[in-house]
Amino acid sequence: MRRRRAGLAILVLLVALLTALPGLAGCGGGGGGEEIVIKLGVLADFTGTAGSAMQPTIQAFEDYLQKVVPNSDNPLPDKVKVEFTHFDTQLNYSKTTPGYLELKSRGVDLMIIMNAQDRELLQDRPDDDGMPTIGTMGLQSMLAKDWMLTTWSPIQSQGEVEMLWIMDDWDYEGQGRSPKVGHLGYNLVSSDYYQEGIDAVRNDPANAGKFTWAGFEEGTLGNVSWGSQVGRLKSCDYIIVSVAGPMLSSFVSQARAGGYTGAFLTGMEGFPGFWPLVTDQIGSMDQLYDCFYVAWWRWWNEDVPLIQDCKDYIADTYTGDEATELLGTSSTISGWELGIAVEQAIRNAIEKVGAENVDKAALKDGMNAIDLQIEGYLDKWQRTANTNCLQWSQRVFEYSLTEGVWEPLETVYHPTLTRPMG
Fold first, then answer.
1. Predicted local confidence at residue 26, as pLDDT
2. What is the mean pLDDT of residues 161-178?
3. Which domains does the chain have, with CATH numbers?
């Protein structure tokens, strides 16, 4: 599986190799010597509510670093290998700190912490321990952390973009009223953070009178019975849904069965990760009209080199229904984006200190030095003085019943209410 990975505009290639090779020769002696292993600890929900989306995401991430990069035309310098060790939180927050400590005890050099709430529960521990951490979704409370990086902007920014799109989508003049909007979420802080982004738009004086608010309905983790919530939200024009897994699929099915005719709108943790669950449970695909989600990435039907590389990876690795399912979800794209960020952090660290001297501090500096423009992507990937998120700009994707695919809408949204200046 030798590929070009044409989508990566990485400017350190030759410099990194020229810097690292003398160190490698000194350490290993012209082809002898030991491998230089960079050990990554993955803290994630592998078997809980988010497990069906998390497992293929982490598999794609690990395959990218262990199979795709080594067999590309630009592998990591000779003898540099990446290894993984895991801890399954099962989306049980009482396991977050024990899981982190267990992975730390295994001697990991960099921690992959997928859930934003897990990172927040750890507070200053990674900084105090000198443990670099990389994840996907950011949090406003963590944007200034030097030892933390995320590929995407905070949960709050998704709520903001969802509300901005609703204002663009709604025909105020034709309808003669404001849209009725509600939110269905967990009784967990993740949905509270969504609500913060929603409220930032609702409470902006510029948007006075733009919404009729139906309320924020919550369900306990694992709930799949939504009769009361459906009853209170079914008169909405839009329901923002911030639950995942079977909670999402059961709510959509029961809402349609209960008479809801409006639109469903999720963030990245909703439809793109768990669409197969939704389609399995809905009964008739005709009921999946007006389904939308908000995200940062490019999608399978877009002519972008990174997406083509993801398609090639799936074709090389999977067959049949498994391949088809992956081509309809975000798991591979998310995993590869995370892999690219980690790859670049490692390359930057090697360039700065030499492969034999890469340690946690070098990896922290390496991740904070990421400076990438991936061909076809909206944002240049880099942290700023006030934010440690690589991507902020987002689009809305709509499910096409006629084509049977998700299609990106044209407008690009740049969060301002939930993004600090600088």
1. 34
2. 98
3. 13-153+301-368 (3.40.50.2300), 156-295+396-413 (3.40.50.2300)
